[in-house]
Request: fold
Amino acid sequence: MAGINLRGVVKAYGKTQVIHGVDCTIADGEFLVIVGPSGCGKSTLLRMIAGLEIITDGEISIGDRVVNDLEPAERDIAMVFQNYALYPHMTVYNNMAYGLKIRGLAKADIDTRVRKAAEILALDDDLLRRTPRQLSGGQRQRVAMGRAIVRQPSAFLFDEPLSNLDAKLRVQMRLEIKKLQQNLGITSVYVTHDQVEAMTLGHRLMVLNGGVVEQIGAPIELYEHPATLFVAGFIGSPAMNLLPARIGDGGDRVELSGGDSLALPPGRFAAHAGQTVTAGLRPEHFEIVTDDQSVARLAVDVVEQLGADTLVHGHFGNDRGSLTVRLNGTQNLQARQVLPMSVRPELIHLFDADSGRRLES
Amino acid sequence: MVENRPWLTVATHVVLVIGVLIVAFPIYVTFVASTHSLFDLVRIPMPVLPGSHMVENYLQAISAGLGEASGTAAVGAGRMMFNSLVMALGIAGGKIAISIIAAFAIVYFRFRFRMVAFWMIFITLMLPVEVRILPTYKVVADLGMLDTYGGLIIPLIASATATFMFRQVFMAVPDELAEAARIDGAGPLRFFWDVLLPLSRTNIAALFVILFIYGWNQYLWPLLITTDPEMVTIVISINRMLSVGDDQAEWQIAMATTMLAMLPPVLVVVFMQRLFVKGLVETEK
Reply:
């Protein structure tokens, strides 16, 4: 077992640079999720750790070994691919045993390891004798994980392992992966574009955008204190409302472009008085209040009843800025209704309009 | 088409039956001719029902051919079929071995002039054997390979078509499989042997059927380089049986030899039909 260390990792294809210097220390036993939109370089970064892509610049070490020039097999890692990449002509048993066979382990040793992995993953004997073609998606996924487990590696690498599964199975497998990682305590790096998957699985998240690390932190930290506009818009579902605004001259109110204004925690943003900003308001932080307390009057356009909560899409203010609000439970609302809404001052996020960085105090 | 019209069914069957008759009739005539004595055979009209000399004709064809009498040495169809078999197996096996390795190199390795190599192979597709037959003959003759199995087989082994086909097969294999093998610690040869070969099993079988028939039916090349009767292939020998100048050709023996010559390709197709069809239509990897 070992931690993973990335120092100034850069990837370029010819002149096009796709990863712009990533630094990150992944502790032993930690579960790090790399999340970002498609094309942000997250898979490339993972494949560089795996040794499937050449590292253009910087250094990657696993444990205390620098692995830049090591073959994937020598890096002591195991990888789970999006399409599982099981050998179609081998039985499940042989799929799991293949890597061990190449390493020259004794037959009995291989058998013990495969049986143990099969037991952990609840693969019975009958399944072990089948070929991948005869398995369902979820079972294939399990076999792919089994192939990773039997190697007893210092790190697991997951490349969007759940995206080929249907929604229900995905939730179930997500939980299984989490439990498995907890029980085995093996350092894991997991790539996904699904922020819910990222939030639920990771000890820490790395948000990647265009090859640049936007923020690394615990899921709840990213949710409560997004460091940049990108993270603010990416983490959380439905996405945070981002509205053009300006901090009032006194620094105690933020004036939205539509004419409404929200109170800020007193004194905190005094230094930024008069600055043009983007205000971030999470849909779930809105509450319906009485008319005289309201800071915005939301004209309802569409209501989506989800059972546990209700999504209201509407517009407000003079410039009819659109807004999404999430209310608890079932709400009896109609389109064209007007709701007086408010947000508590401490839940307002402010970002510099130019740099996109979060404004602190 | 799933149309259900009785007359259409009848019409399609009539067309099919006519087609089968057109293809099968010459073969039937060949068979009939191989069961008569020469005396019956050259009478007009020619018999249309099998005669009574079948066993004796076939025995003669297999053991002695035309014998000393007709000027060729007494080499029976047995020996010639063996020559043909060695050539056909050699060509089929050699073509598959060479082209699968070439395709492996083209698909899985990045080296200088990779695409140049690929296009050179591809362009040779456009050059039929006949075009390069003189230089090839010269080379083979200089190497002293006339009248040898090597001379029969080796010049015909390179195959652009098969290389191209295996290239397509390998390109359909997901990249992740190669990557998974790399992580498992399998080197290129290991990956080729343990993963690619088993995956292309059906394609190899299909190709084998086609190439075996191709090799078996080779005419021009064996005609050129074999002069020793011991090395003649069966297809050539049929021709030789008929070029007897002013003498009466021994048709019944030639026809019996023809029937025998047809047998191995038919057997290969019959026994490998399942794999053959699978190899041509299967897409899932």
